[in-house]
């Protein structure tokens, strides 16, 4: 079964939603920064993210409801992607759909950093066409090279 999602650019109006998703216990457990984030820290991060021309932050919508987020940080050498799915939407294939959609819009080298034990994100990365490259400093690196 294929899940259909739409990506829209995040705005400051998404701040509360993004903070709730970020501080979800499972999201924290598998984040490179596992600290609880305060509202003040989050607002500052979101303002910086939205004004950063090298970063695009999207809200993934499923059935016209916000269901997750994907982010891409781009440099001259690669695109680093990350994602989170709202707890109530997990297990429905949304992460696979939204990450594959994001990856389909990028060209060049795409990298995802995944903590060991995060089998769900490994499956998502592989579904989107990324393959395991190596583990460095306790982080597994998955990568894809697209024409462009």
From TrEMBL:
Gene3D superfamilies for this protein: 3.40.630.30
Entry keyword ATP-binding: no
Keyword Transferase part of the UniProt annotation: yes
Domain N-acetyltransferase: from-to ranges: 5-148
InterPro entries: Acyl_CoA_acyltransferase, GNAT_dom
Keywords assigned by UniProt, alphabetized: Transferase
One Gene Ontology molecular-function label: acyltransferase activity, transferring groups other than amino-acyl groups
Top-level division of the source organism's lineage: Bacteria
The protein, known as: Protein N-acetyltransferase, RimJ/RimL family
Species assigned in the record: Rheinheimera pacifica
Upper taxonomic lineage: Bacteria, Pseudomonadati, Pseudomonadota, Gammaproteobacteria, Chromatiales
């Amino acid at each position: 079964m294929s899940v259909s999602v739409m990506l829209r650019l995040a705005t400051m109006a998404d701040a509360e939603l993004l903070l709730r998703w970020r501080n979800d216990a499972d999201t924290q457990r598998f984040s490179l920064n596992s600290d609880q984030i305060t509202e003040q820290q989050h607002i500052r991060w979101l303002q910086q993210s939205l004004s950063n021309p090298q970063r695009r932050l999207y809200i993934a919508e499923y059935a016209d409801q916000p269901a997750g987020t994907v982010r891409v940080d781009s440099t001259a050498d690669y695109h680093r992607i990350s994602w989170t799915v709202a707890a109530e939407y997990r297990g429905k294939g949304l992460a696979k759909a939204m990450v594959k959609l994001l990856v389909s819009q990028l060209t060049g080298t795409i990298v995802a950093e995944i903590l060991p034990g995060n089998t769900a994100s490994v499956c998502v990365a592989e579904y989107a066409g990324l393959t395991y490259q190596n583990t460095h400093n306790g982080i597994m690196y998955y990568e894809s090279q697209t024409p462009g």
